Amino acid sequence: xxxxxxxxxxxxxxxxxxxxxxxxxxxxxxxxxxxxxxxxxxxxxxxxxxxxxxxxxxxxxxxxxxxxxxxxxxxxxxxxxxxxxxxxxxxxxxxxxxxxxxxxxxxxx
Amino acid sequence: xxxxxxxxxxxxxxxxxxxxxxxxxxxxxxxxxxxxxxxxxxxxxxxxxxxxxxxxxxxxxxxxxxxxxxxxxxxxxxxxxxxxxxxxxxxxxxxxxxxxxxxxxxxxxxx
Lengths: 109, 111
Fold this sequence. Notes:
The complex is a heterodimer of chains A (109) and B (111). Chain A contains no helices and eleven strands. Chain A has 109 residues and is mainly β. In chain A, the strands form two sheets. In chain A, strands 2, 4, 5, 9, 10 and 11 form a six-stranded mixed β-sheet that branches. A five-stranded antiparallel β-sheet of chain A has the order 1-3-8-7-6, with no helix packed on it. Chain A starts with a strand and ends with a strand. In chain A, 35% of the residues are buried. In chain B, 0% of the residues lie in helices and 54% in strands. In chain B, strands 2, 4, 5, 6, 9, 10 and 11 form a seven-stranded mixed β-sheet that branches. Chain B has a four-stranded antiparallel β-sheet with strand order 1-3-8-7, with no helix packed on it. The chains are: A mainly beta (109), B mainly beta (111). At the A-B interface, strand 4, strand 5 and strand 10 of A face strand 4, strand 5, strand 9 and strand 10 of B.
């Protein structure tokens, strides 16, 4: 099956800093999603981005499908951005999402 | 449009018991998937249902089962609970091949 690797595993930043989270995957994908897991465990959708670039406020994401990686950018970090960020992928004809192990982001005031 | 709902939100069971969790998808979504999240194993796929048929199954023992009803609501059942089944169980729904949306989860504790 598809392998998904996220880096870094942990990231500690000062409020206002920018961050880049990376997701590498081992095969062609039909679906790539970025999630933020809130303190109560719910996965909040950030981006659905099997290819290309998208932006939503301070967050943006880029997926280079031919090179099998995706990047999540967070600019001007706020303490509310703290939490675990997951990348998940699914291959063609398959709804099964394979998750990475996540990046734990901590924003210090 | 209402999101994915899961009931109950919290559950405490004893080893050997069985448990049934419920998931109601977003209206119009016919695909429902279940995931287990534990600190040691991360987020793992359990199974996926579409139009009342199980289309895909993860690598879990037969104690884990599920079903989907004609209104797309889904249930998963775990029989003969073990301590290691303590986890957050997440349900997701989607249109075919599209973005998946997750419910708030059911946190199961087995004592």
